[in-house]
Amino acid sequence: SEIDSGSEATGFGHVMPNKGGLCIAFKFWDTGLCFVNCHFAAHVGRFEVRNSNFREIVGQLHVGLQSMDILNQFHHVFWMGDLNYRLDFGDTDDKL
């Protein structure tokens, strides 16, 4: 019950839908659930841009109570998608 959905574009000019997030939220019995799927900025070295994408989605994607962000109004938030974070293990050939 109480189903709601929303989206937030974080792409070029914050209007292009190539990057951003969308969610669906609902109550299952007395438990608030929110499912977020996102696509963050790509490429090595864009760590801060990806963090900014996350903050923008959390702050601007309004579902349920419009005065609260999605992280603070639901019992469980399931966050998934193409986060584009990169792991750098350095030169692993020296360690083999």
Describe the structure.
By secondary structure, the protein is α+β, with helices and mostly antiparallel strands. The chain is built from 1 helix and 4 strands. It has one helix at residues 47-60, and strands spanning 4-9, 20-28, 31-39, 76-82. The chain has a 4-stranded mixed β-sheet with strand order 1-2-3-4, with helices on one face. α1 links the parallel β3 (31-39) and β4 (76-82). The protein is globular and about 55 Å long. The mean pLDDT is 88.
Key features of this structure:
single chain, 15% helix, 96 residues, alpha+beta
Question: In terms of topology, how is this protein built?
Answer:
Elements: E1 4-9, E2 20-28, E3 31-39, H1 47-60, E4 76-82
Parallel strand pairs: 3-4
Antiparallel strand pairs: 1-2, 2-3
